[in-house]
């Protein structure tokens, strides 16, 4: 038996489909109701497919700003591309729009896109993943963020970091900075181990320092168990917190003193994707509080999927599970 929320979501779609007729995106933009999924990562793409599967007669539109995200392979230091790709979405009849959702008008039930288009929705699923939050660290400005790429979900930053690492001097010092709390603890450990392995292979005389602002249980120990000499992990209590930075000079003031680095992979504090915050779906933590079915606690008619949810396990399998759950909700 369907639960009341699933009936409500599917009922909204059915009503929308009856009104929509056969209009295309351009003419629908202000008039025709439909289900819209924002974000084409694993969670959003899987949810769009699941919706098509459940109601082949109802239009489903997926908006993704980064066309590479709907491809099959991930680039250097990128997130895994483990969701359904563009071909699978199109085969299933999902309409894909490549654009950036920059605003949301709840009263008019309308999304505002970077291109200037506006898009009406009847049912909304938001899967925007994560984005950096502001951190009050003196010197951490746009220049610093550019010179010291986080490469934490941005393919372009991943390429920049890879290029910087390829140009390192033999006796380089590389710093990996990790915030607290960590959005993706396993990915953070993987990043540290990957940098360590890369330096061991290509620059055996180089050093790596991991500066963790907090002390996530188990991470430092797992790193130390396999790290080569010259590879150090400092937790917050050991001086790993970054107090201020001077990116042009290549220095970081930490609880353990000043460090000079040739390359810094500066991972900033994360929260839900910016559109979730703009739309008022995130709380003071920067994440979107949801109930067990993924409904927003701020807007119960909206489903939040994947990494953007507060308290989520931020891995591909969990993102896919959240899409399945939401489609059933
Ligand atoms: C560096 C890193 C490494 C990782 N490694 C692993 C791993 O090895 N194994 C694993 O299981 N998990 C890994 N993860 C976690 C995994 O990537 C996430 O759990 C998963 O991608 C979450 O899926 P999602 O769909 O919720 O969000 P995302 O994959 O982040 O997708 C969100 C999508 O929404 C789009 N978007 C955001 N805002 C808008 C907007 N306003 N308009 C239009 N589009 C928008 C983005 O472009 C993006 O494509 C890693 C994460 C990181 C950061």
UniProtKB/TrEMBL annotation:
Residues 1-31 form the signal peptide. Keywords: Signal. PANTHER family: FAD-DEPENDENT PYRIDINE NUCLEOTIDE-DISULPHIDE OXIDOREDUCTASE (PTHR43755:SF1), PTHR43755. This is Pyridine nucleotide-disulfide oxidoreductase. Residues 34-142 form the FAD/NAD(P)-binding domain. One of its GO terms (molecular function) is oxidoreductase activity. PROSITE patterns: TAT (PS51318).
